[in-house]
Write a structure and sequence with these properties.
With 271 residues, the chain is an alpha+beta fold. The chain has a single domain, classed as Phosphatase 2c, domain 1. It contains six helices and twelve strands. Helix 2 crosses helix 3.
């Protein structure tokens, strides 16, 4: 039969593949589009999902007053439902973080807004932080995530305390923690998927191993530090693989500020 009589077969995308693509788009909306690098500050991130889509989220941005805002969180559960709730939390945070500079107030307002229309069984652990590249002062409040880790002068320490996760109890208040950073210092914010990573011997990755890897990054950029950390985590877990989403954000004060006189700007990781 001639070509005019032939029926062309048009490839069809299965419903499963369409759902996977939609899930990837949702997941991509939950993490930054690139790193933030400027005078007096470097911020980088890494995200390692457990499945096609999960409930971790993170973002960082330059506020009009020159401060760098940063938040990350971990929604209870996995899959598309968790990702959708994470998107709700992020949208709520984006509407709050420009209303003021008080980190406890931001988390308290997030908690109240999420409880206006509560979703059964859904809540999230969240950190909100602000960094001043001029004074090098970091302030943050924590609603249930693992302690941030400070690396300074060849030692590591855990910062602050935990706190009640967002969307659990009404009228929850949060503490503010303030840390004075120095050139060469770095702070790691991470969800518990990193700390609770296990190997084939059923050992936890743990705080000490995490701290030791970060201490080895004294001369590395924020981006290089996360590469080193995630390579170490992968080597530790080996064939076991992650059992949860892993999200990490590294904030570093350069020893010699990069781009003096320039405002912080976005860069795609690895560029």
């Amino acid at each position: 039969m001639g070509s005019h009589g032939a029926l062309e077969t048009v490839p069809r995308v299965s419903a499963y593949e369409a759902d996977k693509e939609a899930a990837r788009e949702v997941q991509n909306s939950l993490v930054p589009s690139g790193n933030l690098i400027g005078a007096g500050v470097e911020v980088a991130y890494r995200f390692s999902p457990f499945a096609e889509v999960g409930g971790d989220f993170a973002d960082f941005f330059l506020l009009p007053n020159g401060l760098v805002g940063l938040y990350l969180g971990d929604v209870v559960g996995k899959g598309l439902a968790a990702a959708m709730y994470a998107a709700l939390v992020m949208g709520t945070l984006r509407g709050i973080n420009k209303t003021g500079e008080d980190t406890p107030a931001v988390l308290a307002l997030l908690n109240e807004r999420l409880l206006v229309r509560p979703i059964t069984g859904r809540y999230c652990a969240t950190i909100y932080a602000l960094f001043d590249p001029i004074t090098r002062e970091l302030t943050f409040s924590n609603a249930g995530l693992p302690h941030p880790v400070l690396v300074s002068k060849g030692r590591y320490s855990r910062l602050g305390e935990g706190g009640i996760p967002s969307a659990v109890f009404p009228r929850t208040s949060y503490d503010k923690y303030t840390v004075q950073l120095e050139p060469g210092d770095s702070v790691l914010f991470a969800t518990d998927g990193l700390h609770e990573l296990r190997n084939h011997r059923d050992e936890d990755f743990g705080w000490d191993r995490l701290g030791e890897l970060l201490i080895e990054c004294a001369r590395k950029t924020a981006d290089e530090s996360l590469d080193h950390l995630f390579n170490g985590a992968k080597s530790f877990s080996n064939a076991s693989g992650p059992h949860d989403d892993i999200t990490a954000v590294a904030l570093r004060v350069p020893i010699e500020p990069e781009g003096v006189g320039n405002s912080p700007s976005r860069r795609v990781p690895g560029k």
